[in-house]
Amino acid sequence: MRRVGILTSGGDAPGMNAAIRAATAFLLSQRVEVIGIQHGYKGLLAGRMAPLTAGDVDQIQREGGTVLGSARCAEFVTIEGRNKAREILGAAGIEGLLVIGGNGSLTGAHKLIDPREAPGFGLRVIGVPASIDNDVGLTGMSIGVDTAMNTIVEACDKIADTASAHDRTFIVEVMGRDCGYLAMTAAVAAGADAVLFPESSKDEAAIVETVAKAVAKARSRSDRPKRVLVIKAEGTKVSTERLKEMVEARFRDSFGEKLDTLEVRLTVLGHVVRGGRPSAFDRILGSRLAYVAVRALLAGENDKMAAWLTPFPMPPASASRSAADPYCWLVDLAAVLAETEAMHNGTSDLVRWRSDLFASVEDVLPT
User: Fold this and answer.
1) 139 with 285, same domain?
2) Which residues span the domain enclosing 114?
3) Nearest Cα to 257, choosing from 282, 291, 292, 220?
4) Which of 56, 114, 133, 349 is catalytic?
5) Which of 245-254, 278-287, 300-309, 348-357 shows the lowest mean pLDDT across its residues?
6) Are residues 269 and 180 in the same domain?
7) Catalytic annotation present for 133
8) Residues whose CB falls within 8 Å of the CB of residue 347, separated by 6 or more in sequence, listed in order
9) Which domain-ending residue is among 233, 249, 274?
């Protein structure tokens, strides 16, 4: 293999640059030319690509985001768009492609080399999971999760200070449209009184009751502070604003609580969670996964993803532990995408375990 392309796609994640740097450095050491593709599949279709040198990637592991840029691309979803991408890659002499991204990015990588669409297309593709939501199947951790979790916990620690000073209830919304992993883990680390996540089977009334119970327990304490911290994933069935209104109404109607003594405040962290310099773990994770991925490319592997400490369900028989790193596996992209879909629709064993775990400890979260 003489020329390998690298692209980052979908939502950016801290640690992507570490993956770019590690992949580029190793490939150059093997005398393989590295082509950086700007702004993911959108940039690929526009032909925006250029060689990457050692100087281009020097020290980029310190920075958040991605030096290659990222974008969504509706055109690539069509077979016409993918055919155009194949023509561009072929004309550029790119023989291998490293795709760093989440579910949509890995789906695109899998379809790009689908033999039903392009029989005889010689490109080899390996994926690297990067998603702050940790919603990619068959990998214990994706690039960006650790940094995002630390950002949330740091923000919640600061919010808890002012909440304690005024005996307030804070509902903190974090990212997690289809997956509540960040909310769950941050709730434990930050000592939250309640956590709300989309995988829960709770309806709107039950969600309100969860928050109301946490507030009632805090306000029943004989001593202070009576602060309450609720962490809510953005994909939870009820909006944050409506949840505030319903909790206030619940206390007004059922507990006789005067609203001037019940202060519910909202904080939406939003894209703050995506940003910032990557943690040491995300720099190491990105570097190790990328190293395993490009070694797999050079060894002739195709249509696979480099995974970190694969969780249950255990990888299918076609998965194999990486010879380059005992903590990493190479898993078929088709299996990854199937498990990711199961995670999103709630049928995954892993998702059910997470939900059952938090249901069992819900009453002991508030202290």
Assistant:
1) yes
2) 3-144+278-347
3) 220
4) 133
5) 245-254
6) yes
7) yes
8) none
9) 274
pLDDT at 61: 97
**Which two three-digit tokens encode residue 72?**
């969504």
Strand ranges of the sheet holding 264-268, from the earlier edge strand across to the other edge:
194-196, 228-233, 169-174, 264-268
pLDDT digits (tens, 9 = 90+) for 252-264: 776 665 555 678 9
pLDDT tens-digit series, residues 32-47: 999 999 999 999 999 9
pLDDT digits (tens, 9 = 90+) for 208-265: 999 988 988 888 877 777 889 999 999 998 999 999 999 988 887 766 655 556 789 9
Q: Is the pLDDT score of 196 beyond 60? A: yes
Same domain, 49 and 107: yes
Q: What CATH number is given to the structural domain containing 312?
A: 3.40.50.450
* 57-86 tens-digit pLDDT: 999 999 999 999 999 999 999 999 999 999
How many angstroms separate the CA atoms of 313 and 303, rounded?
20
Q: How far apart are CA 219 and CA 214, in angstroms?
A: 9
Per-residue pLDDT at 169 exceeds 60? yes
Phi and psi torsions of 353, nearest 5°: -65, -45
Q: What is the pTM of this model?
A: 0.93
For the chain, the three-class secondary structure string (H helix, E strand, C coil) is CCEEEEEECCCCCCCHHHHHHHHHHHHHHCCCEEEEECCHHHHHHCCCEEECCHHHHCCHHHCCCCCCCCCCCCHHHCHHHHHHHHHHHHHCCCCEEEEEECHHHHHHHHHHCCCCCCCCCCCEEEEEEECCCCCCCCCCCCECHHHHHHHHHHHHHHHHHHHHHHCCEEEEEECCCCCCHHHHHHHHHHCCCEEECCCCCCCHHHHHHHHHHHHHHHHCCCCCCCCEEEEEECCCCCCHHHHHHHHHHHHHHHHCCCHHHCCEEEEECHHHHHCCCCCHHHHHHHHHHHHHHHHHHHCCCCCEEEEECCCCCCCCCCCEECCCCCCEEEEEHHHHHHHHHHHHHCCCHHHHHHHHHHHHHHHHCCC
In a domain, 258, yes or no: yes
